[in-house]
Design a protein that fits this description.
mainly alpha; 8 helices; 159 residues
């Protein structure tokens, strides 16, 4: 993982974002015609959240930290060469805290996120396993297709 994983990074399951949108289009327009932050209510450190997926997978693996400055430097070079599997915003914020207060959405919309970071990550891992056969021979940049790993595939052999 980029960095030591002690940062807190709030995720949002697609079902929860759809629920927030639904709430805004079905409630009194005078109350919901505003800006709301939405995200998981329960989240821990990225190391803990990611570890939950590895534990669920049952392979006995542990999250390994990688120095953020070195990862960002390497990914910036790969990005410039158009070989990076992720874009700058992703790797540039991966080791930093990123979370918002969802209290306003809870109070005005009645927003209650169903999924914690851990639940959302495990749910997406299950979806990935279920749909793995449909990825055969495909890569891309969408969330429905595995990203090309570029040179990271080589780095993973040594790390």
């Amino acid at each position: 993982m980029i960095g030591n994983g002690t940062n807190r990074y709030q995720l949002l399951d697609v079902d929860d974002v759809c629920k927030a949108i639904w709430l805004t289009i079905t409630k009194d327009r005078r109350k919901v015609n505003d800006v709301f932050n939405v995200g998981a209510k329960k989240f821990t450190t990225m190391k803990e959240d990611y570890q939950a997926v590895l534990d669920y997978a049952g392979f006995g693996k542990k999250i390994k930290p990688f120095p953020a400055w070195l990862a960002n430097f390497g990914l910036a070079i790969l990005n410039a060469l158009k070989l990076s599997p992720v874009y700058k915003w992703v790797y540039g914020t991966a080791a930093k805290d990123s979370f918002v207060s969802i209290e306003k959405a809870e109070k005005i919309l009645g927003f209650k996120p169903k999924y914690s970071n851990k639940n959302a990550l495990i749910r997406n891992y299950k979806w990935y396993l279920k749909n793995l056969d449909s990825f055969e021979g495909k890569s891309g940049i969408s969330h429905r297709v595995p990203w090309s790993q570029g040179l990271l595939r080589l780095i993973k052999l040594f790390y």
